Amino acid sequence: MVYQFMLSISYHEYARYYLGSASCLSVIDTNGLRLQLPAARFRIFLTQFGLYGCFQIRTENGRLIDIKK
Question: Does the pLDDT of residue 20 top 80, yes or no?
Fold first, then answer.
């Protein structure tokens, strides 16, 4: 399955995930489906400004396979 969603999280807000006080991001995809995703998998997209943009994930059998920005 492929899901698309937008993220808009400031650097300071994402720090909660980076420091471990929260482990999952909760997002709503373009079809209205709520997804819980491991926050650590988004670190590669983090900039000094935060985590912003349109993302696409691919899953197989309920497992996260790929993330694209």
Answer: no
